[in-house]
Task: structure prediction
Amino acid sequence: MSVGQIVNLLKMKVRIVPAMEVGKNYMYLLIDQASKTAAAIDPVVPNKIEEAAAEEKVKITHLLTTHHHADHSAGNERMSKLFPGLEIVGGDDRIPAMTKKVGNGDIFNLGNLKVTCLHTPCHTKGHICYFVSSDSSVEKGENVVFTGDTLFSGGCGHFFEGTPDQMYRALIEVLGSLPDETKVFVGHEYTVNNLKYAAHVEPNNKKIAEKLLWAQKLQAEDKFTMPSSIGEEKLINPFMRVREERLKKYTNETDPIKVMGKLRQMKNEFKL
Result:
């Protein structure tokens, strides 16, 4: 295998493809096992995705863009030429070569898989996370979500175009309401640095300490820390724990939305 790492599920496969050293971007190839059709998620380096698809012997029919930033969408034009007829999906008019604009709750199929669009504005106004389930959606752990720069393992994205209340809704009300078993695939490999901040916020949280040691070991071996899960993020990610008393005490705030804003401000200023 020349490109990426594979996560096999019951009815789908996710191939993790690193995009570039600077920024530590992740791209993904989402494969419906039955139909051998696939979607490329944020394929900023198209030739790597093309190579992965060839190795998997799948046909790419969809391109899912989480948001318009160039480190996620700059490959769209090239992808449209490599794969004629490609459906390029996104939630923001600033996304290059977009052919299908989606909004919150929109659903479409990738082979036998169901893709639900979740509008999570804050990092950007048009940010979309993609929740994917099997046709029956009863197998434990079969659901996955691609979170772009909204949710990272142990952290969240900058509030470039939004506010703390929007990130609160995105993380707590939208993503936090997904099944705990849902596997999480994020836009960047920031896990170690995020968990260093999380450990600073909650020095007595054993789950964070264990996860940080695990992530540091993988990083030293040049391995990926994906996927995480929604249930795990609720235990280790301070931005998904803003209703916890320890987080309120740390930020000296009582309103969880204000906790969210204060945590992001303090993370921006945190020295590793």
Summary: The first strand starts at residue 5 and ends at 8. The radius of gyration is 18 Å. The CA atoms of residues 215 and 221 lie 10 Å apart. The domain at 5-269 is CATH 3.60.15.10 (Metallo-beta-lactamase; Chain A).
